[in-house]
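Throughout our pipeline, every protein is held as a single compact record rather than as scattered files. Such a record has a labelled line for the sequence and another for the backbone structure tokens. The remainder of this section carries one protein's record, kept here as part of the documentation:
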Amino acid sequence: MKVPVVVDGRQLVLTNLGKVLYPEAGFTKAEVIDYYSRIAPVMLPHLRGRPLTVKRYPNGVGGAFFFEKNAPRHTPAWVRRVTLPVPGSSMGRESIDFAIVDDLPTLVYYANLAALEFHVPMWQVSAEGRALPPDILVFDLDPGPPATIVECCRVALLLRDALAADGHDSYPKTSGNKGMQLHVPWPYQDRDTSAYAKALAQRLDGAHELVTSVMTKRLRPGKVFIDWSQNSPAKTTVAAYSLRANPRPTASAPLAWAEVEECESAGQLVFTGPDVLARVEEVGDLFP
């Protein structure tokens, strides 16, 4: 069934609204679109100007999925696109036409494609479509079992204090999966985010038994891996407020530092899309 709609003056055709994309929760495509439509006021500022990578699940989270960077041929002409070089592309491409989610119609368009996850880099493009220096530094905290997000919170506090000592603010969010991320506003166009992040991760690795800065799997059980490599210009991180492809429609939720300090069980920091909508209604956007 096709449903024509007008979103902020743009004509869209929504399809298969009754399809269940999260079978365990009975969460349908219509509910995914509704979530992204309602979360848009706080999510769009974290997507605007950033080349988009989506993770699409046409048959729901239990089915096949694919990452999509190149805007599909059927992308409406009003969706902003930029052509950027992608050296070393696994697809053998020299460049990719990335979409930019600057507005609600574009967000709804991608939600209708069953793009459950939205991923963006730590840099933006200029009005002319030129890649700009990073404006965010990110640390991705990944717990090695039996460690959980509880241990991630302990490491996040270590990072917060180390960053503050260097004069940096930091903002935590859940990944929507098992870990979390810290975002650090980065106004220094002439300073390398990757080098700084690596040095700080290695410093904490050397000082705290709970921390590892090395990706090697055998070194990670019971520890929290501080993934500093996400600061590579070629990497992306799940956007704040994005849904994740789990049995339930969990979302990447910005946190207050008090929640990180008080985390005693992994379940405390698991939020579904409806949970996140309620949080935003109560506290607004906790991300910079």
About this structure: The CA atoms of residues 210 and 223 lie 5 Å apart. The mean pLDDT is 96. Helices lie at 29-43, 104-112, 149-165, 193-207, 257-261, 273-283.
